[in-house]
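User: I'm curious whether this sequence folds into something compact or stays loose and floppy. Could you predict its structure so I can see for myself?
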Amino acid sequence: MNKWFNGDIRWSNTERLSNREYHCPFCLNKVSSNTGYGFIVTFEYSDSRIGSKNGAIYICPHCQYPTLVILDFQFPGIPEVKSLDHLPGVIKGIYEEARTCMSNNCYTAASMLCRKIIMNTAVSEGAKTNLNFFTYVDYLKGKNLFHPKCESLLSTIKDKGNEANHEIEDVTKNDAKNVLLFTYYLLLYVYEIPGKINAEIPG
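Assistant: Here's the prediction. I'll summarize afterward.
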């Protein structure tokens, strides 16, 4: 996940908390923190009993960014795929937005953005503009721009991409994760690996 800004953060009136290990969604390090702000969540059971749970906003000791933690739930969550360094500007922006949506549990939005990335990738590789999604997928397939073993996953992406745009039901976390993972490997193959090789070859 992109940081909101680059600067030194100084938190006021933090308290000492019980130590917690978690993956920071901002710097992506596995950290251990005992600093932040504690709170209590009060809720009502289905039988009208009242319960409560402890929660906290932990401050990452590495990047100083906050993460909300309640039991096994944390927000923001961890993006399912890594950031990439060698993407075209437009695609990079959409890809980072998709990663952010996934970490914020916005699975339908993440799937729709991945659909847009796949279409943009096809156009950047020579496909004509203003075609439908399936035509772009077939174009990428014809150009051998993804591994043949990914074809079964690709059919899922076709279905889920269509559902996200035209159907009522939301996309599940697992479906969105698969779509984002395929998109990551596509971008890795088309842009990231060639970009790294070209950067390392002396000019």
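Summary: The longest helix spans residues 173-200. Strands lie at 15-23, 30-44, 50-59, 66-70, 73-75.
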